[in-house]
Amino acid sequence: MLFDASYAGLQNVLDLRSQQHALTATNLANADTPGFRARVIDFEHELSAAYGDDGRLQVQRTDARHIGTGAAAGNPAILELEPMDGTLDGNSVNVEREMVRLGENQMLFSAVSRGLSRRLAMLKFAANDGR
């Protein structure tokens, strides 16, 4: 198979990382909004949902007409963080924590995208008869 389950899994990781980036940006934008709850993607839950009991990536499709190539990142589990004790306005955004999450997410997104680029470069190399 040209694009195996690991290719689809890496693609889904990129989708989830993009969604996490948007959530983190929203969290930071609402750092001073009373009652706002910071939200994060539950990556552990998403990973366990993508892999079956046997540890193999499960095939899922968003449309019956699609060719199944791996798990879909459709609607990930999102956690709302509780405010820390002593927070008077009920806001659960911690700017330092969100900045660390933003940097970590960017680093992981870059690593996965480099991996996908290398896989595609190998396919291109094979398609061009090793040239």
In short:
The chain has three helices and two strands.
Structural description of this entry:
- The protein has 131 residues and is mainly α.
- The chain has helices at residues 5-29, 43-50, 95-127, and strands spanning 39-41, 78-80.
- α1 (5-29) packs antiparallel against α3.
- Helices cover 50% and strands 5% of the residues.
- The protein contains three helices and two strands, in the order αβαβα.
- It starts with a helix and ends with a helix.
- The model is unreliable at 68-72 (pLDDT under 50).
Helix share, percent: 40-55%
The tally of beta strands, per DSSP, is: 2
Provide a count of the helices: 3
Structural class: mainly alpha
β-strand amount: under 5%
What is the H/E order? HEHEH
The global form is elongated
**Strands ordered across the widest β-sheet:** 1-2
**Could you tell me the mean pLDDT?**
82
Low-confidence stretches: 68-72
Main sheet? 2 strands, antiparallel
Distance between the termini: 22 Å
Rounded to the nearest angstrom, the radius of gyration is 18 Å
What attributes characterize this protein structure?
131 residues; two-stranded antiparallel ribbon; 3 helices; mainly alpha; single chain
